[in-house]
Amino acid sequence: xxxxxxxxxxxxxxxxxxxxxxxxxxxxxxxxxxxxxxxxxxxxxxxxxxxxxxxxxxxxxxxxxxxxxxxxxxxxxxxxxxxxxxxxxxxxxxxxxxxxxxxxxxxxxxxxxxxxxxxxxxxxxxxxxxxxxxxxxxxxxxxxxxxxxxxxxxxxxxxxxxxxxxxxxxxx
Length: 172
Ligand SMILES: [Zn+2]
Ligand SMILES: [Zn+2]
Hints:
single chain, alpha+beta, Arc Repressor Mutant, subunit A, three-stranded mixed β-sheet, 9 helices, globular, binds zinc ion
């Protein structure tokens, strides 16, 4: 479900590889494995989830490389951070540019909203307050279509937080 609404894996992977090379960073085995894993991730992931996955799947122990690479990817606009209510930040692949994320609190599916007219729509308020805006952050949360359909049939399934199944297994 989430995979459909995120940036295409292969395109993201290829563009990030090019951007890394252009920034002078070497193509090391751990970096390639981290990017491969991220490009295949179908749901928002935490840094620790990447650490555990690479250790278990490939025997690569590279916590500091993962954290540094995530910082770089966020700074360059290739990942965006999802601010979850329980303080566990997760990340989603994006293409650089202005956008907002809509996050389903039931299943964790994310949608990128790139059509943003927020500043235009509140311009009268901004004018009235004599405030010059230089940027904004906004994250939308709610329920995706498939989850609303499930909950309409069975309200008992309403979860207590986002992406419960994945979340339970990734806590250190
Ligand atoms: Zn959902
Ligand atoms: Zn915006």
